[in-house]
């Protein structure tokens, strides 16, 4: 019985993602005719069309979607076979691709990476910054090995470990009526002043949860693409925002013309957990354990004060 090749499955997953033969061929480092021929061979082998080709775009058939989804799983397992052999031979060496969300990376990495690179000098670290949903997709497809992210977040059957947690602080413009309070109760925050990251950032949902606001119905006319943008908007008097604790001693906050106060934490709602996520088939336990410890040390080092 003839079986699909990994190359054919890879071609299909990339076309399914990009919906464009030319761009997919570039990403696969082959000519468009080579990629197209590979997918046609796969369709012939399976006896069913997987893609609908038009002059303007590529449409994926329902079967193509399902085959592509399973192909991603097969490709990730294949990549893990190589990683398993690599880490068995030399557990703390080789390349490790780590995805990390934007609301963690600028604050955690400068504290954690020096120790990680010093103690794990034989590992080449490749860092990818993206939103949580995209990183989980890349993890499933085998494009990355680990994800550093915040919880709660639905990771399905993936494995994870929590290395820290942090509270939220409120960033206020100078002379704001709440600036004289030692702590700010979530009920004191005016929703018409609250500025959050754009939808798709998990920090948005965590901040809404900390304020005890519904994540599905809350809407705001002021959204930022990064915490840096939100901080500048607060300094400009455009509203208030919530910051994760690890951000408050950063240079951007220290030098911003704003006031920050801790958010009153009721029943651990004004918190988010920080953790590492990986595929069950990814066998690099020693590296994961050590990296998790270094991230934990970075979270706890120093005191967060104003």
- State the helix count: 10
Report the major sheet.
7 strands, mixed
**Global morphology:** globular
CATH architecture identity of the largest domain: 3-Layer(aba) Sandwich
Topology as H/E string? HHHEEHEHEHEEEHEHEHEEH
- How many beta-strand elements? 11
Question: What proportion of the residues form beta strands (DSSP E)?
Answer: 15-25%
Low-confidence regions: none
CATH superfamily membership of the largest domain, which one?
Periplasmic binding protein-like II
Give the domain tally.
3
User: Portion of residues in helices?
Assistant: 40-55%
Output the structural class. alpha/beta
Rounded to the nearest angstrom, the radius of gyration is: 23 Å
**Distance N to C terminus:** 68 Å
């Amino acid at each position: 019985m003839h079986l699909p090749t990994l190359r054919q499955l890879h071609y299909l997953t990339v076309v399914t993602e990009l919906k464009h033969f030319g761009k997919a061929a570039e990403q696969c480092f082959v000519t468009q005719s080579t990629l197209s021929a590979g997918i046609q061979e796969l369709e012939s082998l399976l006896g069913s069309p997987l893609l609908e080709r038009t002059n303007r775009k590529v449409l994926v058939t329902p079967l193509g979607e399902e085959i592509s989804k399973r192909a991603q799983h097969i490709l990730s397992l294949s990549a893990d076979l190589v990683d398993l052999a690599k880490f068995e031979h030399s557990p703390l060496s080789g390349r490790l691709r780590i995805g990390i969300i934007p609301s963690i990376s600028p604050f955690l990495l400068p504290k954690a990476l020096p120790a990680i690179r010093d103690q794990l000098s034989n590992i080449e670290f490749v860092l990818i910054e993206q939103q949580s949903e995209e990183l989980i997709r890349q993890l499933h497809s085998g494009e990355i090995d680990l994800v550093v992210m915040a919880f709660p977040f639905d990771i399905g059957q993936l494995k994870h470990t929590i290395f820290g947690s942090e509270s939220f602080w409120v960033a206020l413009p100078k002379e704001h009526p709440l600036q004289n309070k030692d702590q700010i109760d979530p009920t004191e925050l005016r929703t018409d002043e609250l500025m959050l990251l754009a939808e798709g950032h998990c920090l948005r949902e965590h901040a809404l949860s900390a304020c005890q606001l519904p994540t599905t119905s809350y809407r705001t006319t002021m959204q930022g693409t990064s915490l840096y943008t939100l901080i500048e908007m607060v300094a400009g008097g455009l509203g208030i925002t919530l910051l994760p604790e690890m951000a408050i001693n950063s240079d951007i906050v220290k030098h911003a013309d704003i006031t920050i106060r801790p958010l009153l934490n009721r029943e651990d709602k004004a918190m988010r957990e920080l953790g590492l996520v990986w595929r069950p088939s990814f066998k690099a336990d020693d590296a994961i354990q050590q990296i998790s410890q270094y991230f934990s040390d970075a979270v706890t080092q120093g005191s967060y004060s104003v």
